[in-house]
Amino acid sequence: MGRQVCIASAGFSEHASKRSDVSMPELVSEAIEDCLKRVPSVDIKDIDAYVNGNMPAFEGSNIPELWMTDWMGARNKPLMRVTTGGTTGGSVAISGYYSVAAGLPGVDTVLAIAFEQQSQGDTSVGLASTAYGEISVMNSLGIPYDQLTLLFSAGAAIGIASYQATNYMRKSKITEEDLARVVVQNRHNAAKTWWAHLKMPNLTIEEVLDTPYISYPLRYGMVCPASDGACAMLFTTEEKAKDMSDIPVYVNGVGSIATETALIGFNGSGSGQLDLSEQLGAQKTSELAFRQAGVSFPRKEIDYAEVYSPFPNQELMWVEQLGLFEENTAPNMYETGVTALNGELPVNCSGGVNSTNAIGASAMERPAVAALQIMGEASNQVPKTVHTALGHGWGGYVNLVTMMVMADEPTRKLR
Length: 415
Hints:
The chain is of the alpha/beta class. The protein has a single domain, classed as 3-Layer(aba) Sandwich (Peroxisomal Thiolase, Chain A, domain 1), CATH 3.40.47. It is built from 19 helices and 11 strands. The longest helix is centred in the N-terminal third of the chain and has 18 residues, at 123-140.
């Protein structure tokens, strides 16, 4: 595992559907400034290396990490770019962790930055560019175009999510009202988060259910927005973190696992695609990260969770598949207030991806918020003390999962 790594700070830009008031470098700079203001003893010159990530095809931008180098303070310093679809932010955060853990000469403090300015481009075109590549490869393997057309007719993210939702609803016996309840909780939480996008403090379940279907059972009022925004996290050694922060956050476990790749699995080869709500990748990723962190009973040991869920059914799935609740019990946890801000196990008090989705940043914002909850500095801070928390990411064709387990001490003990 290398040396002990801590998170000293995290920061955000303001998120909105169109941040036309700033350029992409300025958007990133906002998050960096918010991150560094929490650690007044740290100057930009104290950063030894950088990890940066977004989905450049979505904005039509080429290698933006190079032309925003000065805005990040990265001139003449090591810089690595990471892109892994929806999990980009999670992968960037894990890369920041390993950059410090590796003990490379002269690399003790690393700034990880993830962002997306979707209003600058067209996400659908970006997704299509990936599809065209897969069509070419799979056709060369002998799969005819008429069959490929059927495979690609799922409807992108909402199509996948609707398959997940119907499978999960069948197994758990829930209704659309249960899905709407998750949305309402997220949008209410977002209203208390300064950087969040969709802030709806008075939204009701009835109002969500009154919106039209996009793809059954998911309605317009249930889906995430497309956001412009950025996030930054400061990783450093345990020794330096103690000087930078009153409550350094120890990174005790990380996991990043992919099951089958995209349509190859969906076309008949793998368990990860036979039931889109099974999420074997989430199970294996959480097992790996919890084992590293010494967490044996997640339901009892995890005090706070941020999970990546653009759609409400996914939030119910993730909290179960990550081991926080028993299978098919999550809807009841939301109905009884267990996952609320003042509940036994608060989930997504930032409003989550369902309220704010700057794709490249979204999976980093989960561990970033979780870390700030441990520090007691989150925008929508839970009333209880958070000792242990997790941040989770999801991406690809429901096949790529990241997770980071953090705590206020380097070894976990059952509380």
